[in-house]
UniProtKB/TrEMBL annotation, chain A:
<dbReference type="GO" id="GO:0016614">
    <property type="term" value="F:oxidoreductase activity, acting on CH-OH group of donors"/>
</dbReference>
<dbReference type="InterPro" id="IPR036188">
    <property type="entry name" value="FAD/NAD-bd_sf"/>
</dbReference>
<dbReference type="InterPro" id="IPR000172">
    <property type="entry name" value="GMC_OxRdtase_N"/>
</dbReference>
<feature type="domain" description="Glucose-methanol-choline oxidoreductase N-terminal">
    <location>
        <begin position="106"/>
        <end position="324"/>
    </location>
</feature>
<dbReference type="InterPro" id="IPR007867">
    <property type="entry name" value="GMC_OxRtase_C"/>
</dbReference>
<comment type="similarity">
    <text>Belongs to the GMC oxidoreductase family.</text>
</comment>
<dbReference type="Pfam" id="PF05199">
    <property type="entry name" value="GMC_oxred_C"/>
</dbReference>
<keyword id="KW-0274">FAD</keyword>
<keyword id="KW-0560">Oxidoreductase</keyword>
TrEMBL record, chain B:
<dbReference type="InterPro" id="IPR027056">
    <property type="entry name" value="Gluconate_2DH_su3"/>
</dbReference>
<protein>
    <submittedName>
        <fullName>Gluconate 2-dehydrogenase subunit 3-like protein</fullName>
    </submittedName>
</protein>
<dbReference type="Pfam" id="PF13618">
    <property type="entry name" value="Gluconate_2-dh3"/>
</dbReference>
Amino acid sequence: MANLNIRSKQERTYQAIVIGSGISGAWAAKEFCDLGVKTLMLERGRNVEHIKDYPTTNMLPYEFPHRNQIPQEIQEANPVISRCYAFREDAMHFFVKDTDHPYVQEKPFDWIRGYQVGGKSLLWARQVQRWSDFDFDGPARDGFAVDWPIRYKDIEKWYSHVEKFAGVSGFKDGIAQLPDGEFLPGYELNVLEKYFAEQLKKHYGNDRHMISARCAHIHGNAEYFAQQGRAMCQNRNLCQRGCPFGGYFSSNASTIPWALKTGNLTLRPDAVVHSIIYDDEKGKATGVRIIDRLTKETEEFYSDVIFVNAAALNTNAILLNSTSNRFPNGLGNDNGLLGKFVAFHNYRARVSGQYEGHAEFTTSGGRPTSGYFPRFRNVYKQETDFLRGYAAGFSASRGSGPDTSGIGMDLKNSLLNPDKYGPWRVGSHMMGETIPKETNFVALDPNQKDEWGMPQLRISVDYDDNDEKMVKDYIEQMTEMFTKAGFTNIQSSDSKQAPGLDIHEMGGVRMGKDPKTSLLNANHQLHAVPNVYVTDGASMTSTSTQNPSLTYMAFAARAAHHAVAESKK
Amino acid sequence: MNRRHALRHIALISGGLALIPSCDFSKDDILAAYQNLKVTTSQKVLLAAISDTIIPAGEIKGALDLEVPDFILVMVNDCFTKENQEKFTAGLTAFPAYAEKTAGKKFDALSTKEKEELILNGTKLEGDDTPEGKERGNIAYFLNSTKRFTIQGYMASEYIQTEIIPYSLIPGEYNGAVLISDLQKPRING
């Protein structure tokens, strides 16, 4: 393809280039801009400006022609994205449709993507739990993957750094495996959730906890967040539409406008990254080659510092496609491990039930979070027939549903006066750690290309025996805890959903101490190309159980500061 | 969006027909607005009468006042699988004869109470593999879908959500322990 761009090389040279504007990329860009670094942020999708580009944000339920249901024709054409819980009429414009960006599933894998400025940060579940050394120690203690080259002490201050700016609400629970952070006032559990937490104390001592999940919502310190143009969370629970208050953290509401305000950020949407340019003579990466999404023209941008934050699997794809004489198998891929040891979170099982007690209570208003079980299995030592463990979500709710069995005036009266309260409903879902394996990998398809001539990604990721045992254990343990708490009508289910639907895919460009067995060093630099950094999900050596975005944000901020320090040497 | 607007106009017009008893139905056109269904003008009138029985008008408007029949057909047309669309329209087609056979009169000629009874019993019909059983199954499927969408289209309508039970985009701070006895219960007279 001819390079039709005639702008001078100097005009297309920046002090740093960040590939991707999602939760981690925008954090890197924000840190660079705050440090005075002229930064180019590339995004493959369209621009989405805060508020202006949230078309459904203030729509009322009756304004959706199908009351938020996705029409059958769209579902049939896009089976993968249609399985995502948030792919509804109100937010479907922020999700990638199967038909627009095909990929190859060697094994079933539901790849959920958001191609726009802000990426999936518009759509995430906003749960932000810190890792602890029980997580970073995992691979070394239990003998899988490779040892993480960092520990909690390396990342602790960066967790604080990003929490303060993003706005994280929670309580200081003092739980060793879920370190406390810089919290705004937390959201109280409801009366039944508190009851359950007390029951756990009674039956399991201090071993099992159920707490209010820490979430990236502004619940205090309004003046500080006003500097970002953000306001308090209004408990709308319509986050996936984009929040006009900036009540939850997203790149669009927070880091991107902040970085733009410094005057140091150039945002380039519609830039599908083809590859990172490696200069054999200079022995380093010198820039990024893109294809314009709309014109299909090729353009090059140059920098001495390149951050790859394209979202876990696309970061793998870009590096695999960045070939040169020095790196014929992908950038930094001397050991052949690029794309391998991909892992995810096991979200297959749920347990539900009901409780007849506390019948005099219900709840009112809204809240953006719910209950959370930190991992309690195999924390201090190996104690089950499977490795690692699971966290779990938990919530209790009580509604006044109308009796819809009748017809005519009876039915109408019942619908308009819904005063019959059923029992409290309780529900939980698992979030299991999976073990990264060489056999779980992504690769570029040798034949099939996408609309931009880029090779399609082949994904070959599956569950293993450890995951099956963990599903069984979660169901057994949660059923036992529900039973001890006096819950009844306890039901469990295993959705057998394909990997990917958890939207926590990780790895392929893992960190490690040894260049022979890992791609990135302790500072997120490619061992073989130190001016290229990866700080998104691709860098994960293991997965732990916590929702990973907070850790990516902390990684990105830490690595950006490292890159700036290096450039000053 | 333009297509949908156009469809709404057509639907409004055909819905309006139901209110003009002298209208000539001898030319029973298939309604183009619901391109996946082969629903005729008179079938839409029947559907309107059924939804009006499920949620009738009173001091507070009923399903028919809120264009619920159009909503039902939009949902069946856009959100049902082909197989379920066929079951729905087969049930709709079989319903007039079922009404006559069961109640001894045309649906139109029944009293409100008779209509209610016919529909409620119809939702409980059980199908099997015989041709008659299939028809019973289709009628039950049609009536249950119609009832479900009537409730949804009625409750999630602009009228109900603005004038009767106002919907709030901002529900207020969470209270996790509200005494039910403290809640005010404004009786809404249906």
